Structure formats: C-alpha cells, structure tokens
Amino acid sequence: MHQNDLLMKEEMRRCFDFFYENFSREEKTYGLMTDRVPDTRHKCSVAANGFMLAAMVVGVEFGYIDFEQAQTICIKTLKTIRNLKQSHGFLYHFYEVNTGKRRNKCELSTIDTALCLCGALTAGAYFGGETLQLARELNERCEWDYFYDYDRKMFRMARYDDGFAVWWDYYAEQLIMYVLSATGRYADIAREAYDNLGKLHGVTHSGKPFVHTWYGSLFAHQFSHAFMDLEGKVDASGTDWFENSVKASENDREFCQSQPELYPDGIWGLTSCAVPDGYKGHIGCSPSGNGNTEHISDGTVAPCAALSSLPFTSQSALSVLKQFNGYPELMGKYGLYDSFNLKQGWFVDRYISIDKGITLLMGANYYKRTVWKYFNSLKEVRSAMQILGFTEKINTQNNDSNKGGSNG
Questions:
Q1: Cα separations (Å) of 61 from 20, 131, 231, 374?
Q2: Is cis: bond before 287, omega within 30 of 0?
Q3: SS3 helix, strand, coil % of the chain, rounded to 5?
Q4: Are the C-beta atoms of residues 100 and 83 closer than 8 Å to each other?
Q5: What is the pLDDT along the chain (408 residues), one digit of tens a residue?
Q6: DSSP for residue 207
C-alpha cells in the first residue's frame, strides 16, 4: 500500500476513535455526540449524530469494532434520538449532552435533521432488524410539508421560535433533503422543489463550467455526497453532480495554488471551519455568491475539506495529506486538528465533529464505497432517486486518474 494511503487509513482510524470515545454513555442521553472536542459546553450536534451512526458501520467494515457492539450502540442511540424534543418529526440543531434538552433557543433544522437521518438509515441498512425499524420510524415521522413554501416551491431552512428562516433556494449541502422527502408521502413536493432548485453557474480557475455554491465552501459539495452515490448518474436536466464536485474540488486546489502567499507548500482545502475568533461558514474560494463577494479566503485551511474530496480528486487529496502531516502542530490524539493558517502562524487545538465525520465517511466511500453501498441499498432511497429523475449516465467513462473509488 502506498505511503499516502497508509496515512489516510491512520487518519480514518483516528476519526473513528474520535466518535467512539466521545459520545454520551449516560442512560438518558446515550449516544448523543458532542459538537466538538474539547467542549466544556457539553453541546450535542444532531448532524454529528448522523456521522457517528454511519461511523459505526465504517468501524465494522474496516475492523475497528465488532458487529454486535456497533449494532448495540446504534440501537441505543436511535432510541435516545427518538425521545428528543422534536416538532413535526424534525430535530433541533443542538441539544444538551448531559440532559438531552434543546439547547437554548436553537432552530428546528431541516439539514441537521436530514444528516442525522442519513446516518440512521445507513446504520439501519447495515445492521437491519431493530436498527432499521428505528431508523425508518425516524425518517417517516418527518412532515416535509411543514417546511414547504408552496408559493415559492422551495423548502425553508429552519424554524425559530418567532418563525421560519430563509429558503433553500440554491444548490448547497441540502441535496440529500430532496431524497429523504421523496422517500414517502411527500414525493410530489420533493420533486417540485428539486426541479425548482437554483443553480449558480460559474467557471473554475482553469475555465471549466460548473455549479458553485454561495460561499464557495467545499462542504456544500460533500455532505450530501457522503451518502448519495451519484457517480455515473445524471438528473432529468442532465446535471452530473458527482462530476460537479470533481470540478469544485479541483477549483479549490487551483484557487489556493494561485495564491502561494496565503497557501504555501501546495496546501488547499477551504470550507466552514474553526478560525482564530470562533467558527466561520464563509471560508471558501471564488466563485461565490453576491457578485463573487461571499467567500472568505484569508489563508485558513481545513484538512477535512481536501480529504473529503478523496472520491473526487484522489491524487490531490492524498498528496496534500502528506503535507498536512508535516506540521506537528496540526496533529493530536484524534488525527489532524480542524484548521490552521500558516500566514498567521495559527493552529487550532480542537476537533469539530462534522469535520471528522465527513473525512471518515468519504474515506470509506473511496476505499470501499461503504456508506454509498448501504444507504443506497434501501428500497425507499432507490425509489426516491427515480422520483427525482436520476438515471444512469449513458456511455460513462472514467478517464480521470485523479478521481474515483479504490480497492486499496
């Protein structure tokens, strides 16, 4: 096995350890996953719980944990999630790890609920039996019409105590939401919303046309793709979202290479991450929204952004991993820390759960197609993909040695 693959396998193992060692073992809150480590706030992110559940599947497949232990963890966690405060089947963004109560006045969140459900369904597909029953119960209780704006033909993002928040009007990390809403009785509005999805068209730094996102952040091209196997598929409009993520990944690398004063040593990977004064969702590259002004590119790099591009640009991702491992300040107990900025001489000393999660899942998809295989094996997911108009791409040829899966 190539040295870079060995480094990636080690990073994946540490990502799994991060999840295994940091979820609640208390009876009332068993399985609730902390938002970050270290975290004195004891805050659970339900999106992180989705990654944690899928991580248990990856753990069995890669030999990190035995089947029965992982299955038990998933069943107990799903029972905890079932009992969390919810509304119309949707979960709040954050809960208290110690009590299971809604944290402060955080929003009822469509995307965080969706990511939690994806992990639940992945675990259900893998372990079957009670795990699958619980996962389907959680998925089927979501009333997607609650968040649907019938006039604008769009889902709203969230609801706060004083009303609904903004709409999912452009392509971003929400692609998986249309699949979940199409798995049951809301198929009509799911297809309508998907067909009405706005697309920000632009070109990469090497001149290739692609659909970019509002902030130019790579996570928006990755989170849904951690679960949806879109390689070799197009939708009814002819859009190939897998190839689009290939271009987005290449664009990120090209953007960083064009600014060596900010991104030396060939480093790349711009996405929402920790920054010196907290956390920013705008870390990204051009093109971005609002006249190319919505991204922040100040030299901050998140290793998860490049490593989660592994299925799309494998050689570039594995190559920069070697660079990341060359910075001792970036390495801790659970592998690479969340982010750093060489220009500022700054390295964060904490981990963010969703970033460790996307790294692990995309690595597993690259090497064994693990999450793709099980999530997409579910009959309701296959049906939803058909409802949304996805079909196999005719005469698909993979001539790019820099992307695609591996048996390594």
A1: 15, 17, 21, 11
A2: yes
A3: 45, 15, 40
A4: yes
A5: 689 999 999 999 999 999 999 999 999 999 999 999 998 789 999 999 999 999 999 999 999 999 999 999 999 999 999 999 999 999 999 999 999 999 999 999 999 999 999 999 999 999 999 999 999 999 999 999 999 999 999 999 999 999 999 999 999 999 999 999 999 999 999 999 999 999 999 999 999 999 999 999 999 999 999 999 999 999 999 999 999 999 999 999 999 999 999 999 999 999 999 998 889 899 999 999 999 999 999 999 999 999 999 999 999 999 999 999 999 999 999 999 999 999 999 999 999 999 999 999 999 999 999 999 999 999 999 999 999 999 999 864 444 445 455 444
A6: S
Q: Are 200 and 287 in contact (CB under 8 A)?
A: yes
Structure tokens at 363: 């690595």
Helices (H), 149-264: 175-181, 187-195, 241-257
Query: Tokens 């040593």 sit at which residue?
Result: 265
Q: What is the identity of the amino acid at 315?
A: Q
CA 11 and chain centroid, separation? 17
Q: Is 156 helix (H, G, I), strand (E, B) or coil?
A: strand
Task: Give the whole-angstrom CA distance, residue 44 versus residue 193.
Answer: 30
Helices (H), 167-313: 175-181, 187-195, 241-257, 289-292, 303-307
Judged by DSSP in three states, 265 sits in helix
Domain covering 3-392, topology: Glycosyltransferase (1.50.10)
Angle at 395 between CA 394 and CA 398, to 5 degrees: 120
